[in-house]
Design a protein that fits this description.
The protein is mainly beta. The protein has four helices and 26 strands.
Length: 384
């Protein structure tokens, strides 16, 4: 059987070699939790450019949240295991936040120790220190952003990791708001007395006030910014809030749900809109959702969400919503799927990422991005 490719596809193939070796002026860095690497997606061309870091570089394992630090480097939560019994002698001891340059060079461990156990969200605070969610100990820990020294526990569930009502139960994404507040998603998990992970509490978005962040008030009682929302029609029976993104206008928060959907809240905690993420079109959805980010450069008003199909070997995709607009009932964004995405979770946008030299096999990942024309067309329609 002969396969005939349209002229734009042929032109794209001829230019892949040059694109993969070039700097991505508007890129997403995406962490693969099952293949222990980070790859580059070029927002401008819609092409996957191959590895940003090779699998396992610097001890990278099961990467989760990615953040661009104030120094311009990439900070990646790595290691541990979210499901093992804490008392198991085989429980991994490699929990850390790793630092990489924008050329993919490993620059060392940025944060570790202090009881850090399966880091998820990481964010830089107004004081310049690095805040990290310690998922299995129900804590948010602080580290010196330069030396990596442990600075102490910022907040906890006040119950030794066993959980508490409206508390820091399974902390995940972290985000500092424009007023200095710290927002954190919780999955509603806690450890039981035997050291197993239990889903005993509501999945919520909590808020620590600017006074709590600055140390002027105790962090023992955060406010509930958004309580566990209602199930969506596409949701497979549970809710697990995960990623956080601040809108470009800095007046609302977008929250991804691992089970399904993206919810938008104003800064008072009122639900404004919902985006369907059911790109597999099944009920319930057969895809899970990782983190989310707004784009960079000319794509800064577009929302990008990471997902994977758990019925198809955890094959991953980038979901793109032009102008952060879309339907609440059916997936209405643009889809970029790649064999190089294996259970992706973390994502961050940057304007200056350089992938490592790619092989011919790696270049074929670029075929996943040939739907960019649809995104550009939809973006122009939104802006009219």
């Amino acid at each position: 059987m002969k396969i005939r490719l349209p002229i734009p596809v042929l032109l794209g193939l001829f230019t892949l070699l040059g694109l993969a070796a070039s700097k991505a002026e508007a890129a997403l860095l995406i962490g693969n939790s099952d293949s222990n690497n980070i790859i580059v997606f070029d927002e401008s061309t819609g092409i996957f450019q191959g590895n940003f870091v090779t699998p396992g570089l610097g001890g990278l394992r099961a990467p989760d949240d990615l953040t661009i630090g104030p120094d311009g480097n990439v900070y990646v939560s790595s290691g541990g295991d979210s499901g093992l019994n804490l008392f198991n002698a085989a429980y991994p001891q490699d929990s850390a936040v790793l630092r990489y340059s924008l050329t993919g060079e490993f620059l060392g461990v940025a944060a570790s120790g202090g009881g850090l156990t399966r880091p998820y969200g990481n964010a830089f605070g107004p004081d310049g220190s690095l805040y990290v969610s310690s998922f299995r100990t129900n804590e948010i820990l602080r580290y010196d952003s330069i030396s990596g020294a442990f600075l102490g526990v910022f907040a906890s569930d006040n119950n030794g990791g066993l959980g508490s009502l409206n508390g820091l139960n399974g902390p995940n994404g972290l985000l500092f708001g424009p007023d200095g507040s710290l927002y954190v998603t919780t999955e509603g998990t806690a450890n039981d007395a035997k050291g197993d992970l239990a889903f005993a509490y509501a999945s919520q978005v909590l808020r620590y006030s600017p006074e709590q962040v600055s140390g002027l008030a105790p962090t023992t009682t955060p406010s509930v910014f958004a309580d566990q929302p209602a199930l969506l029609s596409e949701t497979p029976g549970f809710i697990s809030l995960l990623g956080l993104a601040l809108s470009p206008t800095e007046d609302s928060l977008y929250v991804s749900d691992f089970a399904a959907g993206v919810r938008q809240y104003d800064l008072e905690g009122n639900l404004l809109s919902v985006l369907s993420t059911n790109y597999t079109g099944t009920i319930p959805s057969s895809n899970f959702i990782g983190s989310l980010t707004f784009g960079s450069g000319a794509n800064s008003d577009d929302l990008y969400v990471i997902g994977f199909d758990y019925t198809n070997a955890n094959l991953g995709s980038v979901l793109a919503y032009a102008g952060a607009q879309g339907s609440a009932d059916t997936f209405s964004g643009d889809l970029f799927t790649s064999g190089g995405l294996i259970r992706p979770i973390g994502v961050v946008a940057t304007t200056a990422a350089v992938p490592e030299p790619s092989t011919v096999a790696g270049l074929l990942l670029g075929l996943g991005g040939l739907g960019l024309a649809r995104l550009r067309q939809r973006r122009s329609q939104v802006k009219l």
